[in-house]
Write a structure and sequence with these properties.
Blueprint (H helix, E strand, L loop, with lengths): L3 H8 L4 H14 L7 H12 L7 H11 L23 H5 L4 E2 L1 H10 L9 H13 L4 E2 L6 E2 L2 H17 L5 H21 E2 L2 H24 L3 H17 L3 H18 L2 H15 L5 H18 L2 H16 L15 H14 L3 H13 L6 H17 L3 H18 L2 H15 L5 H11 L2
Parallel strand pairs: 1-2, 3-4
Helix pairs in contact: 2-3, 2-4, 6-9, 7-11, 7-13, 8-9, 8-10, 9-10, 10-11, 10-12, 11-12, 12-13, 12-14, 13-14, 14-15, 14-16, 15-16, 16-17, 16-18, 17-18, 18-19, 18-20, 19-20, 19-21, 20-21
Length: about 450
């Protein structure tokens, strides 16, 4: 059976030697180090035969070489799916425990340091379902270690908020470094300090929030396996903190990434699991956020009726929201963002006439400082104009996306640009489309 990597090379009529030469050229331009040509050819053969999966470093180079998304080359979250796996991840065992010890806290901490996730998507799916049914554990062995004050816990909580805001302006890779450092510091406190039950709950909540943020930024950098590992640890931390809305947010974050790079129907199931487990204790705005992820997975699945139903529930819940009751992690959800999501969903469902006014209005007043989001949202507006056969207008907006994308350093933005380039190729005889494609090739 031909693998996605082989198919990408064959589609270009390249030999493995030609592909290796291309990889080395890209690495040279980007000042990245790669193996020798002979070693790289051996590795490429093994990658193409499915013997091993290239690490994230080489995945980025291969995506650049073939102008493809990670999912198109078989590198998305779907690679974590292995229904035949007989070894359950540690998380599915821990979540069922009635009492946690310090050893369990250390296992949680260690899970964030794995460069390759031990879990597979099947384990996380099982974890999500068990989270709904399992009782909150009682943490024990909290009397050993140095005693800390509430002020230190408050400082930790404030740093989480700062990192969340900073991600609006930083690349995923930069954010990941900072978030991972904060995760290490927070889990170290959990492991070593003497804590009250309230302090433990608050630090576990901070850990879960950091894990959700880490899952988000690593996926933005194209590091999907790390994202899944963070999601698993975050679900465990949120469960131990008895914070169902946070657990739902983490599961729905993974569902969003899976919808983009893997199996959208599986993503829809995870998104609905997240909503079902959190809806009884979540605020109205939180429910709106979780339902947005349901709508997106439905749109990626091509299910118009279910998507419209979910978008209607988003509107209904958001209309009843009270910002003073919301957790900080829904700070970004506003009317603009809701319209953008609806517009993106209708674009995916090939309904540009419904999507265009939503996206045009929302992006016209969007904060210019948010480079990554501007690039992403404008890319869907450009796609709408292509679908509406307004090629000159689409090319102008796509050129703006290209300019913003050069500053965003985001795997998601790069994927959207590749998608637009593929759409414009069928209009290469139109001057504006040809100009965009030339700029895209020369970037």
């Amino acid at each position: 059976m031909t693998t996605p990597l082989q198919a990408a090379r064959h589609a270009r009529g390249w030999s493995q030697v030609r592909a290796v030469s291309g990889l080395m050229d890209i690495a040279r331009k980007k000042e990245m180090r790669v193996a020798s040509a002979a070693s790289l050819k051996t590795q490429l053969s093994r990658w193409e035969n499915g013997q091993v999966t290239p690490d994230d470093y080489y995945q980025r180079l291969l995506c650049e070489l073939y102008k493809a998304t990670p999912g198109e080359l078989g590198f998305g979250i779907q690679d974590l799916w292995d229904g035949s796996s007989k070894e359950r991840s540690p998380g599915t065992a821990i979540i069922a425990k009635r009492e946690w010890t310090r050893d369990d806290l250390r296992s949680l901490s260690a899970s964030f340091d794995n460069t390759i996730s031990r879990s597979v998507l099947a384990d996380i799916e099982m974890l999500a379902h068990e989270w709904i049914a399992a009782d909150t554990p009682q943490l024990v062995e909290l009397s050993a270690g140095r005693r800390i004050g509430d002020s230190l816990v408050e400082t930790t909580e404030h740093r989480v908020i700062q990192l969340r805001r900073a991600d609006d302006y930083m690349s995923g890779r930069t954010s990941h470094t900072l978030v991972h450092q904060e995760l290490q510091a927070t889990t170290k406190l959990l492991d070593e300090a003497t804590l009250t039950e309230d302090q433990t709950r608050r630090l576990l909540t901070a850990t879960g929030e950091l894990a959700q943020l880490a899952a988000w930024v690593t996926a933005d950098a194209g590091l999907y396996k790390q994202a899944a590992s963070y999601a698993e640890g975050g679900i465990l931390a949120a469960h131990a903190a008895d914070n169902a809305p946070l657990a739902g947010n983490i599961i729905s974050t993974l569902s969003y990434q899976l919808a983009n790079t893997g199996n959208p129907r599986q993503a829809a199931m995870l998104a609905r699991t997240a909503y079902a487990g959190a809806r009884h204790s979540a605020t109205a705005a939180t429910k709106a956020l979780l339902l947005e992820r349901v709508a997106w997975a439905d749109a990626k699945s091509g299910d118009l009726v279910s998507c419209e139903r979910a978008l209607g529930q988003v509107e209904e819940n958001f209309d009843h929201s009270k910002p003073e009751d919301d957790p900080d992690w829904v700070y970004w959800l506003n009317r603009e963002e809701i319209d953008v999501m609806a517009g993106r969903c209708f674009t995916e469902l090939k309904q540009p006439a419904r999507a265009e006014p939503l996206l045009r209005t929302a992006t016209s007043g969007y904060d210019n400082a948010l480079v990554r989001e501007n690039a992403l949202y404008l890319s869907w507006l450009a796609e709408d104009y292509i679908l509406l056969n307004e090629i000159e207008l689409a090319a102008g907006i796509a050129t703006r996306v290209l300019e913003l994308g050069s500053r965003a350093d985001s795997a998601r933005t790069d994927e959207r640009l590749r998608h637009l380039a593929r759409l414009f190729r069928r209009y290469k005889d139109v001057q504006s489309a040809a100009d965009f494609l030339d700029r895209y090739k020369g970037r």
